[in-house]
Amino acid sequence: MTKKLKILILGGDGIGPEVTAEAVQTLRVVADLGGHDFRFEEKPIGGVAIKAKGSPLPDETIQAALGSDAVLLGAVGSNEFNALPPSQRPEAGLLKIRAELGGFANLRPSFAWPGLTGNSPLRPEVVEGADILFVRELLGGLYFGRPREWDKDNNAAWNTMRYTRDEVTRVARVAFELARKRRKRVTSVDKANVLEVSQLWRATVTELAQQYPDVQLEHQYVDAMAMHLMNVPKNFDVVLTENLFGDILSDEAGVITGSLGMLPSATLGGKVNLYEPVHGSAPDIAGKGIANPLGAVLTAAMLLRYSAGLEEEAAAVEAAVKQVIADGARTADLARGDKSVKVLSTQEVGGQVRNVLAARTPAHAAR
Ligand code: NAD
After folding, report:
1. Helix (H/G/I), strand (E/B), else coil: 329
2. Nearest CA among 139, 89, 97, 84 for reference residue 10
3. Distance from C-alpha of 304 to C-alpha of 310, rounded to nearest angstrom
């Protein structure tokens, strides 16, 4: 069945537009091959929006995002605006668009790409075969709980880690549903030996698990989990956790992939799903055409899977990425100074992915 999708592109700053362009071209190839109707609209966010419209997230961008079927974002941030207060900086646009769209389930896969395991600081035999999907709760916990305050008169400060049963249930449901389509294992991470909020978390997840008898649930304390992730990353399938723990653990697990430029993400459950590579605007390499586009391309694959329902096509994009890595395609971050490796540009690597995709039988013709 052909799919019709309105996709809002927010390239943003630095390497954001460079890598997003490769993701969009990948989506165009998928649309052409499958006879799908993808419409793209572009709007400003971040530093470019401050310059053009006087705000890191102009109203027109918010409206376009809310009127779209999916939002694909590059990155925001520019040293030019470092003197501004945080609320006026490019990064404020990112926090605001996430809040406007209201997604509560942040998905971050960490995959050990064959051919790149030597890039990880972990030994290849530890990393090989690792394939983890983090499901991080994004709208609750310590980052949003109240009261929160820095009481300067008394030299004290506090934040509140708060969750309701409903908030835990909805994100846990996402994790169990995703596990069903993978290796059917959920590891729920908390600190239930110390925190009441984690006891609620554990009790809620345990109760929900009864609705998923086909999925194996285990609980881990966050401190032990930080160690297990580095010792035995291949033991984990879906990792479900709250906001702060997920922020830290998913970054830690990023080392499995060998480069920040390889990490995609999706945020689901809100009004419109938001897709963005994990990396930032990388001002140190912006405008040089050397950024790794694969994190953005893999982000486009997540968009195909979760917003278009095109699982086969999403898997084809991921397989194409695997193929170009196996073929030796490397941007500078992946070559890591190895002089024997031919370093390719952003566009060359993106082009190789598209070539592999285009060489496949068109999905609609194969059916
Ligand atoms: P960064 O992710 O931009 O860069 C960290 C390092 O990784 C740099 O050396 C960079 O060159 C490299 N890198 C990142 N992405 C790469 C890619 N695709 N290919 C090759 N190398 C890549 O993080 P930073 O330097 O801490 O932050 C730079 C700016 O980005 C700041 O303004 C920060 O606030 C912003 N930021 C934005 C986001 C986002 O938009 N989601 C995320 C993180 C940081």
Report:
1. coil
2. 97
3. 5
Instruction: Summarize pLDDT for 242-259 with one digit per residue, the tens.
Output: 999 999 999 999 899 989
Q: Which of 106, 127, 94 is nearest to 232 (CA)?
A: 127
Atom number in ligand 1 closest to CA 91: 34
Contact between residue 292 and residue 262 where contact means Cβ atoms under 8 Å apart: yes
Catalytic residue from among 69, 131, 143, 221: 143
Which domains does the chain carry? 1-112+259-367 (3.40.718.10), 117-256 (3.40.718.10)
Token representation of residue 225: 């989990």
CA–chain centroid gap for 325, Å, is 20
Whether residue 147 is preceded by a cis peptide bond, meaning omega within 30 degrees of 0, is yes
Buried b / exposed e over 225-243, threshold 16 CB at 10 Å, is: bbeebeeebeebbbbbbbb
Q: Which residues contact 18 (CB under 8 A, 6 or more apart)?
A: 74, 286, 287, 289, 291, 293, 346
Q: Is 75 in the pocket of ligand 1 (CB under 6 A)?
A: yes
251 is annotated as an active-site residue = yes
Q: Under 8 Å CB-to-CB from 9, ≥6 apart: which residues?
A: 20, 24, 40, 41, 42, 43, 72
User: What is the per-residue pLDDT across 291-336, written as a single tens digit (0 to 9) for each?
Assistant: 999 999 999 999 999 999 999 999 999 999 999 999 999 999 999 8
Q: Please count the CA atoms within 13 angstroms of the CA of 61 that sit on its side-chain side.
A: 28
